[in-house]
Design a protein that fits this description.
mainly alpha
Length: 428
């Protein structure tokens, strides 16, 4: 018997009729046998991959958490991440708001140490933490509820997953913006100000507390000032949230395919969450710079009264006759000056006159596109990416913390009796 015949008999069985039967004396070459074996292996691999992909999609649909779970887990995770990284966000805000040339706040580490040494932890690095908390929790609750709702309905209606993640991030951030933008205005101004009567950094603001800041802004600038820079904020945050969750969902999909399980482990959970936030933060840094500058502008023709409130009150008390005289003669009185809207052109040179430091940009616009052009023309690419280091670290750690806690809390609520599946079934 020839070698070819023996090979044929070796691979011949009742389950493989296409090779050769016992009574078939036709010659089958080794190449044909190998080709058929490889073809069957490839087909089996493709079928297995197809089944795995279908299984993962079915698991994704079946494992959708109730909306209440997503909202609670997202609110806790997001707030924890924001509070954890608030001090670094303060450093980033100071770097972006410092228009001295050369800047007072240069590197992240030296800026952090300088603010801590001069102003302390609570009044310096954690200035503005109260409005940050008041806006973070309700904002993230609204965000995650809207994101899950939008994403699921888009996917169920045949939209590609990547587009659904992008659109879901846009829609969710827009819904939450009505809550977090006013808190962002208060937070940014208090971060830029630092401690009350701050002798180390002249920001143009001097609020005693969060309540005092809100009252002063509403009284002197109107309630609309709490939404000042709203367009710039959503120009930054909508692309950031869309990119962040598009990156995160895609990285999660790759991680699950690589591991072969829905439980990818803590290491990959941290990696996917941190890299998604970091990449989105770096890409949207120019928008963040413009947003910070717009929200903390101050009209140079207006008197910054909040920073000189004590001095003005003393002058008014000591010289009542002069005050009355100025009113009678038609000169601008203190009361009329208080009505002037505060819009600060980030200049730390003089809080009372808002005279720009030589070389600093006069960002007298509410247009994001115009702001980007002005920054590029006066400060170059470096102006667009001022504070990119702290922002990259901040968004990475904040995003990683938020999303890891989000997933962990969802798993805990799934098995906890207080958040039983039957309790949440009505709002899935």
């Amino acid at each position: 018997m020839s070698l070819a015949s023996r090979l044929v008999n070796l691979f011949t069985s009742n389950q493989l009729p296409h090779f050769a039967s016992a009574n078939d004396h036709s010659t089958v070459t080794v190449g044909e046998i190998a080709h058929n074996a490889i073809g069957e292996t490839t087909s089996a691999t493709g079928l297995r991959d197809l089944k795995m992909s279908g299984t993962m999609e079915e698991e994704e649909i079946e494992d959708r958490p109730p909306y209440l779970h997503s909202m609670v887990a997202g609110g806790i995770g997001g707030t924890t991440g924001d509070l954890l990284m608030h001090s670094l966000d303060t450093v980033k805000t100071r770097q972006q708001g410092d228009t001295h040339i050369p800047p007072r706040y240069s590197s992240m580490s030296s800026s952090y140490a300088t603010i801590f040494r001069q102003e302390g932890f609570r009044r310096g690095l954690y200035s503005g933490v109260t409005p940050a908390f008041l806006g973070s929790f309700p904002g993230t609750v609204i965000f995650f509820g809207t994101y899950e709702y939008s994403k699921r309905h888009l996917i169920d209606n045949g939209v590609h997953h990547s587009l659904a993640y992008l659109a879901g991030g846009f829609i969710a951030d827009f819904a939450a913006s009505f809550v977090y933008v006013p808190s962002e205005v208060l937070k940014t101004r208090l971060q830029l100000q630092g401690r009350y009567n701050n002798p180390f950094f002249s920001s143009g603001y001097n609020y005693r507390s969060t309540v005092d800041a809100a009252r002063t802004i509403v009284r002197q600038e109107g309630i609309s000032a709490l939404f000042y820079g709203y367009k710039a904020t959503i120009f930054r945050d909508l692309p950031f949230s869309a990119l962040q969750f598009a990156f995160y969902e895609q990285e999660q999909t790759w991680a699950k395919e690589w591991v072969g399980n829905r439980d990818i482990g803590l290491g990959l959970e941290i990696l996917t969450g941190a890299t998604a936030g970091g990449m989105a933060g770096v890409i949207t840094c120019p928008l963040d710079v413009v947003k910070t500058r717009i929200q903390t502008q101050l009209n140079p023709n207006a008197v910054v009264l909040s920073s000189g409130r004590a001095t003005n009150l003393q002058q008014q008390t000591a010289l009542p006759s002069q005050s009355q005289k100025s009113t009678k003669t038609g000169a601008p009185s203190l009361a009329s000056e208080k009505v002037a809207q505060q819009r600060r052109h980030i200049s730390a040179s003089s809080p009372s006159t808002s005279v720009r430091k030589p070389g600093s940009v006069n960002l007298d616009t509410s247009s994001v596109i115009t702001g980007l052009k002005l920054l590029y023309r006066t400060e170059g690419i470096a102006g667009w990416f001022r504070g990119v280091g702290p922002r990259a670290v901040w968004t990475s750690v904040q995003s990683g913390t938020m999303l890891v806690l989000y997933q962990a809390l969802l798993r805990q609520m799934k098995v906890h009796p207080l958040f039983g599946e039957n309790d949440g079934a009505a709002i899935v």
